[in-house]
Each structure stands twice: as structure tokens, then as C-alpha cells.
Hints:
By secondary structure, this protein is mainly β. 5% of the residues lie in helices and 42% in strands.
Amino acid sequence: MVLELCAQVRRLKRNLTNAAWFSLAVAVTVLINPASSLAATQYDNPIITQRADPSVYKHTDGYYYMTYSVPEYNRIALRRARTIAGLAKAQEQVIWTKHDSGEMSTHVWAPWIDYNNGSWYVYFAAAQEGTPFNHRIYALSNNAANPVTGSGWIERGQIKTNWESFSIDTTTFVHAGKRYIVWAQKDPNIEGNSNLYIAELDGPLAIKGKQVMLSQPEYDWEKVGFWVNEAPAVMEHNGKVFIAYSGSATDANYNMGLLSAPATADLLDPSVWTKSPVPVFKSSERNGIYGTGSNTFTTDRDGTILHIYNARNYKSIVGDPLYDPNRAIYVQPLSWDSNGNPVFGVPTGADKPVTLINQNSSKCLNVKDASLDAGVRVEQASCDQTNAQRWHMINLKNGFYEVLSVNSGKVLTAQEAFKDSPISQETWQNLHTQQWQMLPGASTWFRLVNRSSGKVLNVPGCKVGDGVDVDQSQWMKNGCQHWSAVP
């Protein structure tokens, strides 16, 4: 079967475009080696369309539970699956619908699912018909082992904050034995639409003591369209507590900021929190992903921390972006810098990252030391399934590809146009030295040709060891210059 498939590829590739041939080659690679241990878990982004404000809870029963906003803002739905990827096709079950009138009768936003002391809770924001932007925070609870049944959910009323005003986007978390709540709320005495607040919880349904403001819109990127700090999401890692949040209007200007505090600090003390002066995650014009934000965190089966967020695949919106139904849910793994801070990278679309394997050495194309820095050399190394060996092949629609590192968000770049010049990762500048053509080689193998130099990606001396820096060289028709893409 393998020989027959390869023969068919050789016959077909004469008549295919480079992009079509590359897709076929990847597909055949999977057929030849479907159980390859090289392929890390991949996500077919977006995993769910026309859903926004994702919340995911990884439970001890082996399931992931997900809820989100629906475009009609009139109901709350749940789904569950054994894997994050499985949530894409999991059956959706409506567990609650809005009231016909009075409180909770319109604009049901951003449900958040949590599990506490044997019961499930969903926190959400809703408004009253006639005053659609005067939200308050409410809760539902369910004692069933499997809450995705549509039955057993009980309304638990409003979560009372220290004052009555516009309140949305609840997140709860446990730290050092205490349960906290973080949310967005309007302070009538502060200019803008919403700030971020934290408080300790007294049980699952009541705030204990005073709420504390952690952040308000102060930078230009938080104040485009609306002055907004909202959609907090919390994670703890490397001895720090992080709160990601979203700023500005929910169009292409929507982006994410980050707060951090030492895990040993008093989280109710605003002075312990550090705020990033620049967005940590934002729209990507070149990848065609816009309005990134309203995120959540969870871990994959292998313990990798995943960043799950909503975005659109187009920039221009007619009318109020709040009523554009086409926000969708995306998943990407996080990377970490040398100081233990998260690196969100750039949003990526429907392309699946691949591992690039050299035919001669069977080693993987790897960013040296998993560095996030520009100028770092690219080498071959034993394949280890890490993001330093995962690459997005982004079709530039001009016959060339951008080869984007999943780990760093930097791109494969030839330093010079002459033979044997080094290859490194660099910040994308749309240079010809950063564009690569994929030309068919033997069977499903291909060569990567640099647009600037016309040279091919090469392992010098056909060496087979780890740590050999790749370069570019004249095409010699050998396996040292042949590569395969494993998804």
C-alpha cells in the first residue's frame, strides 16, 4: 500500500500547485504513519464556530466541560468531551434559558463553569429587558455528577457586589486554600466602562468583605471604542498568579493584557500586582485572526497549559460588533520565557502546525534551546514533540510560505543570500529572506527554497547528530536537503 501511495504522489505532483501538493504530501505522511509519536495534539482551529467567551473546566472524571456565550444571548449551554479537540463535535445541551421579563431576561453573557464541594456552578451576567446594558452577576447550581443533562439546574440568584452597577465576566479560582472571584464592573466615580475587581468568596455564592480594584483602563490599547478591562482568566504557574484580561471594543481592536503577582503575596493587596503596559495577545493581520480575547486556561492530557480564546477570521464588521455572530473559539498552547512569564505568541488560524523532519538524519528542525529570542540559530535535533519543533506553514498566496515557530512566533529566516549562510528565527518583516517555496522532491519529501537566494534548506555535510545548525546551500538532490511535514 505504501509503495502504491508513493507512486500515485509521484504521478500527481507534476500537475499540482505547490500548496495542493504540500497538502497531499502531509495527508499521505499521516496515512503511511498514522500512529507517529512525533505528532503532538493538534487543534483544528477554530474548534467551535459562532460561540464566544469560552470557559472550560477539566474535571477528575476525565471529561472537559465547556460553556460559552451564544450569538442570541438568550440561553446557557454545556458540552463535554474526553479531549479538548473532542469538544468540537460534542453534543450541546441547553441547561437554562432567559426569563421572559424582569431580571435575567436579556443579553446573557459569558457563563463560567466551576466545581465546588460536590456541586457544579455556572456564573453568568444578564440584564433586564428595557435596560440591556445594566448587567448583574447571577449563578446556577447542579448536584448531578454529569451536569450536561439539561435537568437539575437551580437558579441561585444574584451575586451581590459591594455596590449596584454594570457587572459582568465572572471567574472563580482557588489559591492557598481560599476561593476567590474576579469580575468586571463599572465604578460610577471612575471614567470608563469597566474595571477589574477581586474579592474572597464566602461559600460559592457570596462575596466576603470588600472588593478590591486590580486594574482600570489606562493605556491607549485598552480604550479603543470603549474603555474596558473585562473577561479575566486566572492561572498559577512558576510561583506566580496571572490574570489575563481583555481591553477595548469587541471588534479587531479587542486584545489581551496581563496582571501578575507572586503566589506567596496577599492577592487582595493591589500593590502586589504588576500590569503589562502592552497587550500580550492581539489581532494578527497576516494570519487573518482578529479580535482576540475573552479567554480561559486549562491543561491538555500531557499537562501543557492551553490558551482558549475567541476571535474572528475577518476584520470589517457592519454595525455593532456585539451583534456580529461569527466569533469563534480557538486553542493554542502557551510558551514560557526565562522569567517564568507566559508567552502567548500570535493567533493562528485553520492551518495545523507540523514537525519538519530531515530525510537523511530523521532529526527534526528545532529552535536552539527553545529560545524565544530573535537571531537564535535553527538546528536539527532529536524529535521530542515540543513546540520548539512545531511550525506553522502559512501560505502567503504568492507561491511562497512563511515558516512560523509555534514556540516563539518568530519565522524561519536566511541571514544572507550567499551559500552556507546561517538560518535563524526572526521577527516577521515580510522580507524575501523569510519566504520559502516548497518544491516536490522524492515521494512525499520536499525541499524548501528561499525566495531571496534561491538556495535550499540544508543540513551541512549530511551530518546526522543533534545540534547541527542548518544552513542554505545549492540544490544537490540529496536527502540532507529533503524534508517531510508530520502533522
